Amino acid sequence: MGLPALAIAQYTIRDHGLECEREIGPIPPFSCIADGQIIPIARNGQPVTSHVPHQKCDSPPLLGLGGSDGQCVPYSRVGTLPGKNAGGATDPDIQWAFICRRYSLRADPNDPKFEDVAVVGHNRKTGATCFFQMLHDVDHGLDATRVPPPSEAPEATPPGSTKAADFWLRPEQTASIQCNNCHDNDAFIHTPYIDQVTKVVNGSTVPLVPPGPNLKASPPEKSRYRFIGAPFQESVAAPWRWPKPMRLQPLGNACTTCHNIGEHKSCNYFSSIAGGQINPTDVSQYGSTWPHSHWMPPDIESSGMTENDWKLDFAASLKQISDCCTDPFAAVCRRKPFDD
Question: What's the whole-model pTM score?
């Protein structure tokens, strides 16, 4: 039945940070400005240099920003953190990524205040995944020059810096946001907005945010995925619960050949946008027109695929994913847990 409400309330951000450190690894302090890269805002394929409220852009973020200036607000940042085990050794299976979001227009790209800072940690070997969230008043933001590790003891915070308990939401607040609804098929979400920020690995340019498991490898990489937070695993209070993630695997489906598809946002909202069935808020005309309106498969433009080709190859698979989202327990959908 889970822990009573009193025990949940006593589970602090430091408790959650320490639990995540044991399962994944330590989070170092970081700076949104110094350690994050600006996520570009483009229109008609070109960078936007003069920003106005409710401007249109080619690849807006898919998370509703909730501010008064629209979706294409500039100068949000994304970054990754070193993956190290409890002994301090580098571990390629430990992945940390962060995003620092602006909800309101600010002229200075190096303004240290952000309305939203989110960190995701993931251990590829065990599937252990943690979410940490900061939210602050729109139009004010919180200084993210030094983001404290959630596990940092108050006495370890440098003088003048924000303490973890004052920066991060409490664990039950983050759980109530239900990060798992969007992060239902993998710890990290990849969209054209996020994947504009890249790095070079072995001579190839790849997205900065870590990739999901390679299901087309031979043999396919294991898909291990589970949520950390002891009080929230079986809590009867639904908004505070981290349910066990489940995926849909209909046979012969072109989408699930490459991707895990979860039973929440990835099977309706994200897949519908990726397949050009719906447009994100504040997307430009360029971004809503073929081939820019479709971002799956990723080689549409280079392959010379036509929109009719896409329909012949993928429309039926996308409809099957949508139907399975409506009724995930249908036998054809093969709803199952991620590999343990």
Answer: 0.94
